Structures are given as structure tokens and as C-alpha cells.
Amino acid sequence: MADSLISILPADYAAGHFLGRAQGPDGPCVIAIRGGRLFDLTQDVATSAGAVARKAFAGGTDLGPVEAGLPAGWTLLSPIDLQCVKAAGVTFALSAIERVIEERARGDAARAAEIRQGLEDKVGAGIRAVVPGSAEAAELKAALIAEGMWSQYLEVAIGPDAEIFSKSPVLSTVGAGAPIGVRSDSSWNNPEPEVVLVCDAHGEIVGAALGNDVNLRDFEGRSALLLSKAKDNTASCAIGPFIRLFDDGFGIDDVRVANVDLLIQGPEGYRLEGTNDMGQISRDPTELVRQCLSEHHYPDGFVLFCGTLFAPVQDRDTPGAGFTHKVGDVVSISSRRIGRLTNTVTTSRDAPAWTMGIAAFIRNLAVRGLVDRI
Q1: CA dist 13 to 80, 202, 261, Å?
Q2: Residue 175: partners with Cβ closer than 8 Å, 6 or more residues away
Q3: How many Cβ atoms are within 10 Å of 11's Cβ, its own excluded?
């Protein structure tokens, strides 16, 4: 565990502040990294959401240097617990184009290749240059409607309102090293490497993690009304490895220029690499948070996936069919200042069952005498 813990943290981890969770012998624990050392905060604050709400990142039991790894028998969990899990979609130009392709191909990967080039030629340059919600965006919309090319995906790409959806139930996210799931009846799907913003109940961004917003392109492509089935399945939401907390050395400007790199290594030797360049996002991350907060209340805070530029179109098996996952794919998502999140693909049917819901979590904390420290 010592080597794996070091390998998933950014190179400058000793200068940063991190919040995470781990499964200990008695149940979930809240852990922190500061000054290159690992701390157990659980006796002071028993939830990640509580630590964020109270900015309770100091104190705790010193578990030793990060180089020594987690205590024996401990494993990393997703760094969030009671926070709502939200996601923004179609926040990059290429992402918008790919969603339109899915819609027009009706979830058929083979047809997608026939549509892609012409749509990119007509829409790509204009959609990259326009500011969402601006007068220029309205003019582009009118022109596209006149050409019969308008789409609900272009509406959220360049219109005034971002696509914000609920990705996953509270406590259902998986962490670094855990299996990630795609539905067993999906034939066209992909990972989505993203920055995940961590916010308190008031919408203040306190840090950032990495996330895999696993997506089923065939389901959503058949109908946008299948978004929930395309996005919310057992083990389909990975977050980690830790939350890098904002401080004097890391903040929102670092998020704005972050590169999120993706590596997929298939069991048959297949290899795919890509990059999500946050500098190309169409809406500023703070604007996405503002729209997520909107007229909602998140008493335990929320996290927000910012969307991805990356859309895998590299053929895997059949020419023209593009990419889809296979069981056994190892997916690594990394960013220089945040760390590395690695998960292995299985089906949601075969992924470990999600058993610690809210009731079980509270019961566990009650047995440990920690309910008053939530």
C-alpha cells in the first residue's frame, strides 16, 4: 500500500493539503494529508461532508508519513460521503458535437462515423468561438436551426443554461482502486475523465478531485430521456484519489488550466490515450457551480463533475465502430496537481454490491459513538 499511495498522489503532495476517506477495521474513516503526513480525523469529524462544512481539516491522530502508506488492512474509499453528486454535461465543444452524433446515430456506433466529419466541418469552428448565452450564440443557434442542424445538446452547449444532472446517489461513489461498472446490456460506452469540484452548502469551492463519469453512449444516444440509465448504475461513478483542498499553493486558477490525462489499457493489449484540457471549457467552473446551486439547497454540500473534452473515437475492434469498453480495461485518470485515479472495468451487474447506504452508515457511526461528530 505504501507504493500505491505515493503513486496516486501528485508529486508536490508534501506541499499540499488533502482530504480523503478510508475503510478501517471498524468502518469508514476520514483522513487528511498535510506536511507529507497522514492523519485520521474521524474522532474529530466523522464525515467528509462535515469536514468540508466546518473546514475541519486540522488535528487528528498522526498515522505517520505518507511514504509508509495506510495502516495495515485499510483501503481507500471515495473521498466524499454525504455530499450530493452532480454533473455538468456538454461543457466542451467536442463533447457537444459527439452528443449530437449520438443523438443522430440513435446509439448506433457504426453510423456515428458517417455523421462525424460533416457535422464537425459545419459546427465545430463556430461552436468553439462562441460564448454560451451570448448574442453571438443566439445568432449561431438561429443559423443552425435554419439549416436543420439544431439539437438539444447544442442548446446546453451554447445556450444560457448548462446541463446539470444528478449523477449518483449519496454514498454510492467508488474510490481509487475499486472496480467501475458499465451496464452488461450496453454495447457502446466510454469513460469520461473529469475534474470534480467539491463545494460546501453555500456553493463555496473548497477543493478538487478527479472523477470518471462513466457513460453509456448507446443508451443516451437512443433518447436523452435515458440519461439516468446511461449515467447512474452500480459502480458507475468513481471519485478520487483524494480531495486536494484549496490553499495558497492550489486554487481555482489551477483547475482552470488543468490537463486531465486518460489512459485505457485493455486486456487484449489495446491502448488508448487522451487529454481533457480544462482550458478549453466553454463555461467557467465557477459558473457551473453557480448554475448547480441555482435555487437548490444542499445542506451537506455537493460535488460537481465539470464535464470532459475527451470523446474516444479510436476504433477498437471493428473499423468505423469507435471505442467501447471491455471487462478488464484498466482506466487511469491523472492530473499533475491532483493525482491519479485508477479503476478496472467490470459490469454493473457483477460489480461489488453497494451496501452501505445512509441508514447503514449512520448505524455504523452510532455503534462507534461518532454520530455527534458527523
Answers
A1: 19, 28, 18
A2: 21, 76, 77, 78, 79, 238, 239, 240, 241
A3: 10
Cis peptide before 241 (omega within 30 of 0): yes
> pLDDT digit string (tens) for 322-362?
899 999 999 999 999 999 999 999 999 999 999 999 999 99
Q: Set out the domains of the chain in order of their start, with CATH numbers.
A: 2-79+359-373 (no CATH), 84-92+164-354 (3.90.850.10), 93-158 (no CATH)
pLDDT of 320 strictly over 70: yes
Q: What is the pTM of this model?
A: 0.91
Report whether pLDDT(368) > 80: yes
Q: In 10 A of CB 301, how many CB atoms?
A: 23
CB 90 within 8 A of CB 96: yes
Look at the chain and count its residues: 374
Q: Report the 3 state secondary structure along 80-139.
A: CCCCEEEEEECCCHHHHHHHHHHHHHCCCHHHHHHHHHHHHHHHHHHHHHCCCCCHHHHH
Under 8 Å between Cβ of 209 and 343:
no
If pLDDT is split at 50, 70 and 90, which confidence band does 2 have? very low
Reading the block at residue 59, the C-alpha cell is: 488535528
Amino acid at 327: V
Asked if residue 334 lies in contact with residue 210, where contact means CB atoms within 8 angstroms, the answer is yes
Cell of 96: 457537444
DSSP 281-312: -SS-HHHHHHHHHTT---TT-EEEE---S---
